[in-house]
Amino acid sequence: MLSKVNKILYASDIEKGSRPALRAAVNLCGRYQSEITYLHVIEPISSAIKSRINDLIEEADLDELYNQSLVNLKHKLEKRVDDFLKSEMQESDVLKMTKIKTRIEEGVVWKTIVNVANEMDVDLIIMGTRTSSSTEQFFTGSTANKVMLNSKRPLLIIPLTDKE
Fold first, then answer.
1. How far apart are CA 79 and CA 66, in angstroms?
2. Burial letters for 121-138: b for 16+ Cβ neighbours within 10 Å, e otherwise?
3. Is 85 exposed, middle or buried (0-12, 13-18, 19+ CB in 10 A)?
4. Burial level of 73, CB count in 10 A (0-12/13-18/19+)?
5. Buried b vs exposed e over 8-47: b needs ≥16 C-beta within 10 Å?
6. What is the rounded CA–CA span in Å between residue 96 and residue 26?
7. Contacts (Cβ under 8 Å, ≥6 apart) of 57
8. What tens-digit pLDDT sequence spans the chain (164 residues)?
9. Cα–Cα distance between 41 and 34 in angstroms, integer?
């Protein structure tokens, strides 16, 4: 059993079927009166793709497009949290939108999750995992496995499907 949990880092790929992991984070948040940071990590674009895009679009336009896409993604995360709270929480529930912050980072997903968890000094990391096959998981390892092997913080892994 966990002692006091003040800060929860919920890492999500925001794909269909990730709601059970968010539900687990929200339930723990309500139980411990903690805060959740909803983290989404964007993997960097390869240099080959970046070079091709630079051939087609001016750098200033590309920077503007990138910054606008981050704003749009942040709105998407906030809407997802708001929709979740409206559909799953009752009026009497303690959890409010102010208890959930959204954060977007760029980097290697598992490393970024571990780094953000350390930077924020979270008490618990919650994330879902989905793998197409045990063979794929054996050879490539899931993001959740990599976080588990490289973090010294408690980690709650929720199995996910592609269904909401």
1. 20
2. ebbbbbbbbbbeeeeeee
3. middle
4. middle
5. bbbbbbeeeebbebbebbbebbeebebbbbbbbbeeeeee
6. 10
7. 65
8. 557 899 999 998 888 788 888 888 888 888 888 899 999 898 877 778 778 887 888 878 888 888 888 888 888 888 877 777 777 666 445 555 557 888 888 899 999 999 999 999 999 999 998 866 665 555 556 888 899 999 999 999 998 876 65
9. 22
Q: Which helix (H) or strand (E) is 107 found in, with range?
A: none
